[in-house]
Amino acid sequence: xxxxxxxxxxxxxxxxxxxxxxEANHDIPFPIKRIYYIHGVAKNIQRGAHAHKQLKxxxxxxxxxxxxxxxxxxxxxxxxxxxxxxxxxxxxxVWRDMLWLVENxxxxxxxxxxxxxxxxxxxxNEFITWINR
Length: 133
Ligand code: T46
Hints:
By secondary structure, the chain is mainly beta.
């Protein structure tokens, strides 16, 4: 499994807070075709339960705290996103769940491709078959 937690470039200005940013191909290893974000979620709600066949993603949490639970069929790992200056790169073929630790946390995703339901594997047994194909 190669999910990777990265430091997003962050510029802090005294008394004015901070600005974080990343650039496609420069700071993350893929072009960005889509941005989406999940919001309005109550504490302890879990979403996800799928893997992607091809999609590459950068997940980041500009507000709140969300635990990302990952499983590549062999190893499991989890990462808490609770710092707006951190991002998590997830490669294809990683089963993931996202657990909201704090109500109304916002989970943002920069994705390498347009939305395609055909890229999702939403059945765990199918996921295991897919990675062992
Ligand atoms: C992921 C995690 C981190 C669209 O119509 N367009 C889109 O671009 C997306 C991302 C979703 N949808 C539709 C598909 C479903 O009918 O929105 C609905 C909710 O999607 P889903 O149940 O897949 O949401 P999550 O929170 O389980 O997963 C999402 C992303 O779908 C997925 O790519 O990796 O966030």
